[in-house]
Amino acid sequence: MSGNSNPIGVFDSGVGGLTVWRELIKMLPHENTIYFADSKNCPYGSKKLKEIRELTFAIVKFLLSKKCKLILIACNSISASIINELRKVYPDVPFVGMEPAIKVAASLTDTKNIGVLATEATVNGELYNKTKQIIPEEININVQIGHSLVELVEAGELESQEVSDTLKKYINSFLNNAVDNVVLGCTHYPFLIDKMKEISGNKINYIDPAQAVIKQVERLLVQYDIQNSASNAADHQMYSSGKNFPVKKLLPDLNYSNIKITTNFVL
């Protein structure tokens, strides 16, 4: 790997990975980034593995063509099913994926009942099922597949009645099963944390793994000796394969002067 100023590549099926990218630019402010959102093909959670694989390899090829020095897969569905293949095909590229924070939830629970709110692809993925095997037997896991939540976030609909009604259904199931810690197993879901807390009050703790993931990015940058040593403001590029990319609606407090956004991008 050459060039410490080369960007970190970040990608997701859509805008969900922005919750991880936001943490990246906060914790590693001098690192340049390229973010790719495959909004045209979003969501990935209900797709067949073959299609997820084809889409993922096309995005990775694009990011590598842009000289990305590390690739962060800010998508649970891809991390759960494809990351090991990527590491085999590109052994010299550091990949970081999203890991379901089940072990964290298991260590925090008082009721021995934890929840997972995730997509179908994540729950069916190898990574989730391996992680699930290593938690204590006395821990019960209540899984809810977050149907339609990704689509609502993609539309920038964080305050709609439909979001509230959908979340109430999942959260009431958690509450009815004495769940006190919920793992957010999709990067779109942290955009909805405030709404979730409105519904559950202080009865549930929601676990967003973004910070832990960026700490792993930082460790790999040091391990591979590819940190950006420059002290100037970082440059950020964003590409979306779709027409709708509501980044400014979802992250209104960012300074967009050093962020170049391209929509309707064709790989």
Give your account of this protein's structure.
With 267 residues, this protein is an alpha/beta fold. The protein has two domains: 8-97 and 211-262, Rossmann fold (3-Layer(aba) Sandwich); 102-209, Rossmann fold (3-Layer(aba) Sandwich). It is 40% helix and 17% strand. The protein is built from twelve helices and ten strands. The protein has helices at residues 18-27, 49-65, 76-81, 83-89, 102-108, 120-124, 126-133, 149-154, 161-176, 193-200, 210-223, 247-250, and strands spanning 8-12, 33-37, 70-73, 95-96, 113-118, 140-145, 181-185, 205-207, 236-240, 259-262. A six-stranded parallel sheet has the order 4-3-1-2-9-10, with helices on both faces. Helix 1 (18-27) links the parallel strand 1 and strand 2. Helix 1 packs across helix 11 (210-223). 44% of the residues are buried. The model has no long low-confidence stretch (mean pLDDT 94).
Question: Would you summarize the structure shown here?
Answer:
Helices cover 40% and strands 17% of the residues. The chain has 267 residues and is of the alpha/beta class. Helix 9 crosses helix 10.
List the helices and strands and how they pair.
Blueprint: E1 8-12, H1 18-27, E2 33-37, H2 49-65, E3 70-73, H3 76-81, H4 83-89, E4 95-96, H5 102-108, E5 113-118, H6 120-124, H7 126-133, E6 140-145, H8 149-154, H9 161-176, E7 181-185, H10 193-200, E8 205-207, H11 210-223, E9 236-240, H12 247-250, E10 259-262
Parallel strand pairs: 1-2, 1-3, 2-9, 3-4, 5-6, 5-7, 7-8, 9-10
Helix pairs in contact: 1-11, 9-10
